[in-house]
Specification:
The structure holds two protein chains of two kinds.
Chain A: E1 3-8, H1 12-26, E2 28-33, H2 36-46, E3 51-55, H3 63-72, E4 81-85, H4 90-98, E5 103-106, H5 114-122, H6 124-132
Chain B: H1 2-26, H2 40-57, H3 62-91, H4 100-117, H5 126-158, H6 163-187, H7 196-222, H8 232-247, H9 254-258, H10 273-292, H11 298-342, E1 346-351, E2 357-360, H12 362-368, H13 372-375, H14 386-401, E3 407-414, E4 420-431, E5 437-446, H15 448-483, H16 492-522, E6 531-534, H17 535-553, E7 556-561, E8 567-570, H18 572-589, E9 595-603, E10 606-613, H19 637-640, H20 647-657, E11 661-665, E12 672-679, H21 685-693
Parallel strand pairs in B: 7-9
Antiparallel strand pairs in B: 1-2, 1-5, 3-4, 4-5, 6-8, 9-10, 10-12, 11-12
Classes of the chains: A alpha/beta, B alpha+beta.
Chain lengths: 133, 694
Amino acid sequence: MSRRLLLVDDDQDIRTIARIALERLGGWTVADADSGERALDVAATAGPFDAILLDVTMPALDGPATLKRLRGEPSAAATPAVFLTAKVERAERERLLALGAAGVIAKPFDPLALPAALDRILGGGTDRERAHR
Amino acid sequence: MERSRTRAWAIGLGAWLLLYLSWQRWHWLPGGLAVGQLFLPPVDAAALTAALLAARRCAACGRLRWFWRLMAGACAAQLAADALTAVNALRYAAPPFPSWADACFLAAYAFLFAALVFVPVSRSTRPQRRRTLIDGATVVLGGGVFVWYFLLGPTIVAGAARPLAAVVSIAYPICDLLLLAGLSALLLRPSPTTLRTPLLLVAAGVLTAVVADTIYGAAVLNGSYRNGDPLDTLYLVQFSAFALAAVGQRPLDPALLAAGRASRGPAIGTAWLPHAALALGLGLVLGVELGHAFFPDVSLLAIAVVLTALVAARQLLVQRELLRVQRQLAESERRFRAIFDTAAVGITCNDLDGPAIVDANATFARMVGRTPEQLRGRGYDAIATPDFRGADRVLARAIRDGAVDHHQQELGYRAADGTTRRAMLTISTVRDRRGAPTHVVCVFEDVTRRRAAERVKDELVSVVGHELRTPLTSIRGALGLLHAGVLGELPDEASAMIAAAISNTDRLARLVDATLDVERIEAGRLELARTPVAARTVVAQSVQAVQAAADAAGVAIEVEVEVEALTLDGDADRLVQVLVNLLGNAITFSPPAGVVTVRAREHDGAAHVSVHDDGRGIPAEQLEAVFERFGQVDASDAREKGGTGLGLPIARGIVAAHGGRIWVESPPGAGATFHLTLPLAHVEPRAVRAEAIR
């Protein structure tokens, strides 16, 4: 059974590219949402997920706010979350990690390298899992 | 109102004078000649009234008020004297001389002398005072010759018999002469404009008195004087002039006088008074001497006269020239003042000590919400905007360092409307003929709008850059997935198309990134996350980043780090960016199978990193230009080598932000070597020092 990932980004193209890369190269099953609100719905109805990939900058409910709300969902309370952000400054990175994120991936990302980057963040276990596949 | 008042008085006094003259002609009053004496006291009384009114009008200016009060005293004394004279003349067939009337006449002189002391005059300069002295002497000497000949000489000869009468007779013309000297001294100095007409009228009165007293004194000594003589006409004229002077006196603002602004232009008497006196004295001497043949050699005298006349003519010319120059100077001053005041930049002229403001233009005054007068004589400290206190320091330092020619500095200041604005201050030196600095000129250019425009441009570049990045990311991502065959193998030609699209997308992305970097550097917004970082790590990461490109180009990279523990104080990512750029250039320009050498060592307390290649090198005249934006040696490089033309400017910006330096050396035929110095981290000062000593 493949791992399930919730991808939240307001940019349709980014979602498509990330989804294809993650599904084809990373062996993930990706459910996506185009906004923070939608992500909450998806998490409630289609959860639980093995990981959440969350864009920081979104209109209305942004990444950090979405994560905070997701933590309130029983199905997503403990799911490791990784932020996608265009701001690569160290301070910003530390702020995001302090929110309880497992890691931060810088935008723009190389789709070919995205699954590996995600696996590195999620830990050795998944790396091994991938190696066995 | 004032003009109509003066006209009324003039008509009244003129009518009285005509009345008196008609009596002189037809003697239409009963009684003898002595009745004519009765015409004088009313004129004295009129002058007294006018002087008292003038004193009241000028209550605001203390000195002028006292001048007119003392003039009133003189008129009162004259009134008493004329009344006594009239009584004496009517009572006695032969009035006594001297009498109490003469005491009153002399008292009037005392009042006139005192009055002159109180005439307000503007402060004059030393050359002005000197000229006043010379001109005054000329006036007194010219008048003196006149008085001497008619009065003093004969009196001294004839007066031995009646000493008191002689002394009193002499006293009048001497007093007149002294009065005239005092008045000419006043007329020769710059005086308030509102005082000119009154002073001229008083002087005319005194001049009339000089003539009258001289004739009177001579007549008394000859015994030919009789009360009611037509000579009295002159005294009548004298006090009419005093009365008109008083009537025409406009009130004077003491503040204007204090500011020295009440008197502009040369003194009234300067142009003609000395020459009039010279002509008077010379004319007399010439007339007397030609008539009496006192001097045996007339030609000698003629020569002396001609010479003196020449001197006078020259003096006249010089005077006119001076006046012309003064007018031109004033004109020039007005013109430059207009340029100064209407300049779009604020300008101040400061002395070297304060540095206090000597002069400020209207624009500067407007900038700081003051008037130029309020600024004069004060430092910028006096302007209560905190930032300008900085200007005082900047200025003092610039003066002290002697670096005051076109020294530039930008500073903030609070404008009159309370907003904070930016000004570019340019300091220059004003020097005297010998080149010694005398003043500094500070030009304040309001650059607030320019800075705002620059900020807008920077923001625009930043926003556009970020907006370009997002679609580029998607394009690159999609192309990457296609090219990697994630969505199925592509035909070879399609794959080649995708590869071309990828390489150009990458180049576009590099350009956008570089543009954003340049914008950050130029706006001073390059943020460095500085930590101690091993030089070895920075070099290794950089080499790793370009290794693929080097392999593709068949270029080897050699690394020599001399001090293993060499630790830099810097932003690791940014330093890698710099080195990657330098290495990328070196690889690009290396010949096939070339070698690129990276060296890191410690030198003079700083880290010294160099990147050397064996390429074609850089022409000497372009060693600086390569660090300019789009400053590639060959314009075609940008296309052929895929460079952005911004790499080296960015590298320089990053190195400069670290407090380091970057430069390139390229001896002909020996490739190119880029050098950079970077600060060392002082994590272990002891160890570093020990190393340095060894």
